[in-house]
Amino acid sequence: MTVDIPGVVHQKHDGPGGDLDLARHRRDALLTEGVTFPTARPGTLPWLMALDPFTMDRSLTAKVTALGTAVFAYIDAVQDLYAQRHPIVRAHLDPGTEPDLRGLDLHRRIQTFRLDLVVERGNPVITEIEEIYGNAGKAHAMQSAYGVSYEGLFQSFANLGLSHVLVDDQVRTYDSELAIVRRRLRTAYGQDLAVQFFSEAKLKEVKAAWRFCYTLDFGQYDSDRRAAITQSGITFANPLFHGYGTKALTALAFHPDLTPDFEGMLGAATLGTLRSGIAESRLLTGTEDVPTLAKQRKGLVIKVTDSPAQRAATWGSRGVYFGESSRAKWESVLDAVRGGHLPGRPSLPAAYLLSRLIDSDRFDIAFLHPDGDRLEVMPRARMRLAPIFFREAGRAELVAGHATFVNTSRKVHLGQHAVCAPLDWWRGEGEKA
Length: 433
Known about the structure:
Blueprint: E1 11-12, H1 19-32, E2 48-49, E3 54-56, H2 58-83, H3 87-93, E4 112-120, E5 123-130, H4 136-146, H5 151-159, E6 164-167, H6 175-189, E7 194-197, E8 208-212, H7 223-230, E9 235-237, H8 259-266, H9 268-277, E10 281-284, H10 290-295, E11 300-306, E12 320-322, H11 327-339, E13 341-342, E14 345-349, E15 351-356, E16 363-368, E17 375-392, E18 395-406, E19 419-425
Parallel strand pairs: 2-19, 3-19, 6-7, 6-8, 8-9
Antiparallel strand pairs: 1-17, 4-5, 4-17, 10-15, 11-12, 11-15, 13-14, 16-17, 17-18, 18-19
């Protein structure tokens, strides 16, 4: 075992020698397509490049697709309960969102999302539902480099008839991603999208737009600009309902008082699929039995669901705390939960969610060493699957995705300590995967 790559334990790859040429070819293709990130050195990828796609077999493909189907139905049900002014639903979804940004576009349905999944004993379990995902450009580059078919993703975007991508002014790291998406839609479908920040866009010229900004984050704009956005008549993908964008969304599936509603709206089978395929979670109120949470810490995860002065704490893997950390660190998190603030920052209010820890199955994944001179293996890595779904003709369609691998951390997220592979899946008898 060697550790010359920071944050990575790895060993020599013993596969065929010709694989190195294939890996270099794939790396060059990714770079040619424009894959980059502000923190990456010029001419290098922002992650460790997997030699091959991660392929889901028939069984895992079926389970992941069933979850995607159930999540569309679940979000529709939550949205309907919100429209009916259900107090529990509103108490979960409204915190952190300005009153004028709540309950918009309730007559429209979510069109696309990415699931963050952990495979535990062969079964996929959702840790987060992500409505704003920066992976579409990566998908195009991976299709070019690995030969996986992600045409469904771009056909679905083309079907939306977009004129613009409108971007959160606080998000300045996805320029290259969105440029790749724009190029793919222009060359393949003749659609020339304008990519603009919400503060700069001439809203009267926008017909249909991919909303690359959480609705709650419209709070950064003054009231006149917020009103101009929400009353513009733009057809947004996704619609403006703010409930899509909070980590608290998944906790509603386990609230005992909502069981009769969900059984009636979804049916027992779909509700069962959801509850077995989502990490069980609930909101923390600050009055919990902290000694009990301290004692059970190794099976728990705490996530920030809202921090008005520190929005970044709610994004992705930020603001996520694992009970497997040191006892002192975990107890400092519990103190913050009890006090309703960010750990170590009592002046910054925060709200939290408690979730069951999902322990990933382990995988050995071959990758190209950053020097480009050899292949290595990351052994016993934890994996996060990130399949992207679109709603097409009332069906949940799996259209793209990637898998991320890390073997020195509980947090499995992209970075130069992580191996990234395109996702492939079983597509039917005689088809690839």
